[in-house]
Every structure is written in structure tokens, then in C-alpha cells.
Specification:
The chain is an all-alpha fold and 247 residues long. The protein is built from eight helices and no strands.
């Protein structure tokens, strides 16, 4: 990424805020339009797919469009020995920006629908099968993002990542949060998309475990990347593939 760090961090904050606003806002809208839980989830997932795809396409050229601490950490880990890789300073700027953005997005969504601006969620999500779902969803997301980068198909990121998240809404019992920042942001809204603060810890741990598994799968499936030759110009920002997560 060639943009200054401050601008990239701002783009991460704006993108994560918009993503959470889409997730929470569409959840509120769905519950106000129908009592059918299946239709509510369908509306919520479709809005997230479209919103996420647009945000990745728009902000990817600026910051990589991570919108997700696990993507940022994985990008740093895989690129830490490369001159063009994400640095610890980048990580220290990106992750707080993502968390603040996520909380802001939840507050804005509540404000748009006349809800209390900050109200802790009472939606309990404390169960082993939900944690397993978060491990699976996050591992798949990391495998997809870095697999696309390894195979030279990063340009499919907006469509592929948004499609994966849309599918994961339905094939995981947790509806695929797969994103610590978004998980934290959703604790600030007592609506359809919320999560009780008491459920945050296990969800985030599961997401970090899924990140490690996903990176392991990338190596197992695609092998380790070849060393960059001295006369080879690296592809700038490859580990910062535009993607995110979550919902």
C-alpha cells in the first residue's frame, strides 16, 4: 500500500464502521418487516454480501480492505520477512481503527432506526457449537484470502470474500462473525445482530484459533511461498489482499 499510514488506518475505520452499520442496520430492518427468522437471516445476509463486496472494491486500493484484525494479523505474519509486508506499526494502527470503526458503525445503525445509541446486547451466544463454527468460518476466510493471493487471483477478492461470508451465514450455527472487531462492535447493540458482552471472549479466542488453522491450511494446500529473488520486484501489498470479514 502506497498511501500514508494515517490514511490507511482511517480507511480501515471507515470501512469497518460501514460494514457493521450494514450488518446491524439490515438486521434491525429485517426484524421490523417480518417475524420470520429465516427471512430475517436472508435479508441480513444478502445486505452483508452486497455491502461487503462494495466496501472491498472501494477501499481495497487504499488500505487492503482488511476490516478485520485476524486478516491484519495474518497479513503481518505472512509478510513480516518481506520489505513490502505489513509492519508491526501498521498492525498497531489498523487494529484499533477497526475496533473503533466497528463500535461506531453499531452506534450509527442504532441511531438510524431510533434505537438507544449504546445498549449492551442481551443476545447470549455462549455455546461450544458456536465456538466451533467461528473456528471453521475464520479458518475458511483466511484460507480463501491468502489462497487467492498465492494463486494470483487477488482481483477476485471482492466477489469471492463477500460470497464466502454470505454462504457462511448459512452453513455455520454462529452465522459467521469471523472478525474480532465486528464481534466487539455488535456487543454495543441489543438488536438482531447483537452478541452479549459475556460471549465475546470465547468468540474471539475461537477466531484466533481459526486464523492459525487457516494459515496452516494455506501452507498445506499451496506450499510455502518461494523466496523473493534479488532481481525480482515483489508484488506490493500481496499479503494485504482486499478482504475482510464479517459479519
Amino acid at each position: 500500500m502506497s498511501a500514508p499510514l494515517g490514511r490507511r488506518a482511517l480507511a480501515e475505520a471507515v470501512g469497518t464502521a460501514a460494514l457493521v452499520a450494514v450488518v446491524v442496520g439490515s438486521g434491525i430492518q429485517a426484524t421490523e418487516l417480518t417475524r420470520d427468522v429465516g427471512v430475517q437471516l436472508l435479508a441480513n445476509s444478502l445486505a452483508t454480501v452486497f455491502g461487503l463486496g462494495v466496501l472491498i472494491a472501494l477501499l481495497g486500493p487504499v488500505c487492503g480492505a482488511h476490516f478485520n484484525p485476524v486478516v491484519t494479523l495474518a497479513a503481518w505474519f505472512t509478510g513480516r520477512r518481506r520489505e513490502d509486508g505489513l509492519t508491526a506499526r501498521d498492525v498497531a494502527a489498523y487494529i484499533p481503527a477497526q475496533v473503533v470503526g466497528a463500535i461506531t458503525g453499531a452506534i450509527v445503525a442504532d441511531a438510524m432506526f431510533g434505537k438507544p445509541l449504546v445498549q449492551w446486547s442481551t443476545h447470549d451466544r455462549f455455546a461450544g457449537h458456536l465456538w466451533l463454527s467461528e473456528v471453521v468460518a475464520t479458518a475458511g476466510l483466511v484460507l480463501l484470502i491468502f489462497g487467492l493471493a498465492r494463486t494470483g487471483r487477488a482481483h477476485f477478492g471482492p466477489v469471492a470474500v463477500a460470497s464466502y461470508i454470505g454462504a457462511a451465514y448459512w452453513f455455520t450455527s454462529s452465522t459467521s462473525f469471523a472478525n474480532p472487531a465486528v464481534t466487539i462492535g455488535r456487543a454495543f447493540t441489543d438488536t438482531f445482530a447483537g452478541i452479549n458482552p459475556g460471549s465475546l471472549g470465547p468468540f474471539i479466542v475461537a477466531q484466533l484459533v481459526g486464523t492459525a488453522i487457516g494459515l496452516g491450511l494455506v501452507i498445506a494446500v499451496f506450499g510455502r511461498p518461494a523466496p523473493v529473488q534479488a532481481d525480482t520486484v515483489p508484488v506490493e501489498g500481496e499479503p494485504e489482499l482486499a478482504a475482510s470479514t464479517l459479519s
